Recover the amino acids of this structure.
């Protein structure tokens, strides 16, 4: 029965991984306008994870999960700027700067844009120099791995409230614990054979008394070991 269960688990795992390998990341907006992305997540053993990502640097550590993603941001900031400067012929005006700044908050994300444009007036002409443009973005991104209890399939889900953000790629891996994976392949019941010295009491029918005897004993029996006690 356990072999069939383990075989079904492995079939489900390989089918899930096939879908994770072949499908594309799907981007969409939720009801709150947040950017979302979703696709199947891999289900890998610890050995497969080490082959894919690399060995952990610390001893007695194992992978639980792994997520990576690449994002693309197409940001558009609309700022109304009006410059009114009266310039009279023959008037010398000091050089200056045209500055503006705009801040926006999008839930847990935010953005601040500021610009400084130097200018000078020459022969009744307003001339501008090289502008300094500053963009400060605080982008909130969250991701999680989820499992469908019915189909046993796993998914990676990415989400952000920053406008204009698109997830170009994403990969999620659910790690199978070493001990749990190995124990699931083991059996509780088995046949045990023990050989060793044996000390017992025998009855002497001639002298009508019990006497100790020492010898080699061979024992064959049925054993049961819970998986909790297997290591």
């Amino acid at each position: 029965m356990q072999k069939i269960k383990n075989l079904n688990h492995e079939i489900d795992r390989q089918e899930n991984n096939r879908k994770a390998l072949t499908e594309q990341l799907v981007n969409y907006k939720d009801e709150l306008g947040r950017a979302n992305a979703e696709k199947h997540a891999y289900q890998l053993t610890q050995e497969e994870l080490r082959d894919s990502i690399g060995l952990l640097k610390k001893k007695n550590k194992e992978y639980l999960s792994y997520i990576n993603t690449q994002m693309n941001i197409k940001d558009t900031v609309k700022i109304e700027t009006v410059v009114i400067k009266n310039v009279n012929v023959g008037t010398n005006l000091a050089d200056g700067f045209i500055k503006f700044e705009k801040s926006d908050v999008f839930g847990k994300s935010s953005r601040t844009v500021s610009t400084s444009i130097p200018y000078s007036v020459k022969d009744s002409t307003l001339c501008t120099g090289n502008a300094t443009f500053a963009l400060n973005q605080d982008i909130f991104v969250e991701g999680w791995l989820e499992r469908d209890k019915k189909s046993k399939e796993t998914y990676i889900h990415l989400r952000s409230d920053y406008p204009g953000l698109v997830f170009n790629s994403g990969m999620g891996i659910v790690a199978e614990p070493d001990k749990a994976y190995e124990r699931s392949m083991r059996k509780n019941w088995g046949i045990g054979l023990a050989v060793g010295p044996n000390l017992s009491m025998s009855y002497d029918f001639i002298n009508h008394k019990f006497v100790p005897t020492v010898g080699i004993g061979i024992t064959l029996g049925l054993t049961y070991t819970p998986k909790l006690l297997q290591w």
